[in-house]
Amino acid sequence: MNFLAIDTSGKRLVVAASCGARTEISDRECVLQHSVLLMDEVDGTLSRAGMRLSDCDLLACTVGPGSFTGIRIGISAVKGLALGADKPVLSVTSFDAVAYADKSEKKIVAIDAGHGCVYAKGYGVPLAAGHYPCEQIAALAASADAPVLSAEPLPIACRVVGLGEGLVCAVRALCGEAGTADELTALYLRKSSAEEKR
To answer: What domain range includes position 141?
Structure first.
């Protein structure tokens, strides 16, 4: 299966293009400048993979949780590309993009939410996707004897995994769930800072 996948939900910009057995991944720190860098990274990654957009069987992007603006940038870009090329799309949560980078049976995926909190979800550990204080996740991880995984360092002990590889594995595992561009929506687990400050 050939695909293009992007993650703009955090501080890094990840673009992956897979064509048969060949996969090219661009994973770079972008200081939250996704809108400036995204399309050049898409073009460059497709080129290195020897692909054009028309070669893709589907397009995928992370839909959150994470940066509100970053998520909207990724979804808008993938929707535009998918509609223009008439391609199906796949929603991948930020949790799955991290979880699929690790083979542990039990794990907690955590994503920095700022202000001493994380977005977290358990895999093999009873923890629903939500917004939690760091201390609560650290205590649960210790009691469940499960590692905390993240794509970047957190205020709690965690194992940092490769987001690009996880995104590629998640797309391959979840590709049967692809739908239309109209179905691509953000996964928000709390209100934006602007909404909270109203």
So the answer is: 103-160
